[in-house]
Amino acid sequence: MGPITIGAVAAHFGRDLERSLEKVLGIVEAAARDGVDLLVLPHASLGGYIGDLRDPDLTELPPPIHLDGPELTAVRSAAGPMTVCLGLTEDAGAGRRHNTAVCLTGNGILGVHRKVHQPAGEARAFAPGDRFAACDTPVGRVGMLIDYDKTFPESARTLALDGAHVLAMLSAWPASVTDRASRLPADRQSRLFDLYDAARAAENQVVVASANQTGVMGSLRFLGQAKVVGPGGETLATTRSKGGMATVSMDVDAEIARARRVLDHLTERRVDTYRSGLDVTTPGSHDPTGGVLT
Fold it and tell me: What total of structural domains would you count in the chain?
């Protein structure tokens, strides 16, 4: 496929849906002018996030959005040929909401991921998703995760086994709510956020584009730290704790092939030795070498 430019965004998006949409459109349009091929925005970039993880106020939840509604139609129009991943609160009908990530271009929605793993009291506000699946895009096969999902190695491994070469990690990841540090770089969650990004990339030998919210929402103070990580776990570009876009131009397929030339983690697994509760493969799941795992 050749080199592509990947951009991962750190920015604040609040509850005002009209303002957050305007901000998303501005970022998408600027990225398109700058030649970005894959743009990853934070989770909850359309309409913001809840303000308290432990005890969310159910009377003040983020505005629910229909996937075929005017907001994503506007983003698709701005995206054109660029692949864009962004997060929102999805209206699932009957009063149910999902934390949802959408991958799209001007031609339509290419993939949808609904957050599976729910921390603390989040389950009071949102219904969980139930699957991980990669999607085909103009920049190759992409898998999406939403913040807490990346804590679990099985999430990223499932997407890598489904052929994803890029993992788009969309987060509204806050500083620690129980042991907050005076400086964000020293916060325990800041360290874990970076650790998970590097580990998920290195253990699967894929590229990670990690976006995150900044600023404050209710009692939550978001970390930023958007970055692009190579298949060896090396950080190629980062915003640190500030807002901005981490941008890298790279030949994803070539870099992954180079990383897997001697040690290929996915094909060298010993599934026969793993206890069934730890094995993320299922009969008929995709083998990244082109076969089917049985």
Answer: 1
